[in-house]
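Annual report, structural modelling task.

Input specification for the zinc ion complex:
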Amino acid sequence: MNMELSLYNTLSRKKELFVPLNPPFAGMYVCGPTVYGDPHLGHARPAITFDLVFRYLKHLGYKVRYVRNITDVGHLENDADEGEDKIGKKARLEQLEPMEIVQYYTDRYHRFMDQLNVLRPSIEPRASGHIIEQIEMIKKILEEGYAYISNGSVYFDVTKYNEKYAYGKLSGRILDDMISSNRELDGQEEKHNSFDFALWKKAQPEHIMRWPSPWSEGFPGWHLECSAMSTKYLGEQFDIHGGGMDLMFPHHECEIAQSTASTGKESVKYWLHNNMITINGQKMGKSLGNFITLEEFFTGSNALLDKAYAPMTIRFFILQAHYRGTLDFSNEALLAAEKGLKRLSQAYETLQKIQPTENANSSLVEIKDNCYKALNDDLNSPMVMAQLFECARIINSANDGKESINESDKLILNEIFQVFCFDILGLSFEADNNQSEIIDNIMQLVISLRKDARTNKDFVTSDKIRNELDKIKIQLKDTRDGTEWSVVE
Ligand code: ZN
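The model returned the following structure:
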């Protein structure tokens, strides 16, 4: 079977065969969170998307170095070059040290990502821990002539860069169009052009987070940290750079310009972007009043939610859409995800108990191949899920005696669940199984009480147990091997 992985490269706008620069090593950099608020659904999607990439590359045998940064300095309000630092502002409002804010929200980010079964990256560098590397990169860009100093700040010279390289090639923007719509903005007099961006900003007196540099006491521009840290940990050229689509411009465009200006080389081979999550068809945002944090999802404490949803339901919900498609949140969609996950989990449980038949099941042959085909085609997770549901259908049908599953089919089905459902999609039935285990234990107790009653010819009690269970749609079936219970749908 063809085991070659194709990925959609945002830069070339087509699917390309994944060939790492130094096999068996694969390097991946993903823009992580700016840690100034509680993680929400918008954080979960890129984390789960690139967790899938990470898991699948490892499954294919690559030695993956996955770097995901923590932005703890330099990200100003409205993603602009002016305004307050997002973390500095939160620190001022809460009367805390900026690093207390950073620690608090980084810890919470980790806790919720763990619950979503997102694997931790290989390296998780912080911007504030790499000020020296960022200053060195600015020096290089200045030496190459693609930046200028203005009043203690350093700006990237986009016009100069565009004479040699193409600025805007990732996002499809053309500099000429940007020049014609160029308008002077307040507080941007230091820049030669409004589309130039800050590499270093001189700190205003009220600015808390500041470091010495050759140009002024100040702080690095937001885009610079990713160029500096990806170069440090993955080299001047590496395989995959990922992030949410909203980061394509200006963030990733500026990253390309910085890295290319300082080394003269194209740094990233494959650019991958996940699409956004909408809530009832609307963009999610604090100002729109439709902002739901992960904690609220897990506890149900938000007016937009009908109930609490388990972390695995959220993971299932995100993976049932292809990462490049939009994904709309609604209670209906999450309930459907919950049901889907339950169906898989019940089928998996049934599989463990099922008695193998003599005959093999012919429809199983292609399922494993189909799963690989789906993943190799730009990580088509919904197609993998469709294959898992086909497994569930076969298991249920075999359990009803309508299809056969022999001993080796059972092994294949268990392997499909282990590899695709648990290892690669990162789904888990644990919480669900715990609960059903408890319920089953209670039912075994009820069944044994009924048996005792019948042995003692206490038919009033034994009938009462059966009738009461009937009322709550639990059916008992006496067989030669004992009494079985099931829920009537
Ligand atoms: Zn970044």
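Residues 431-487 form one domain.
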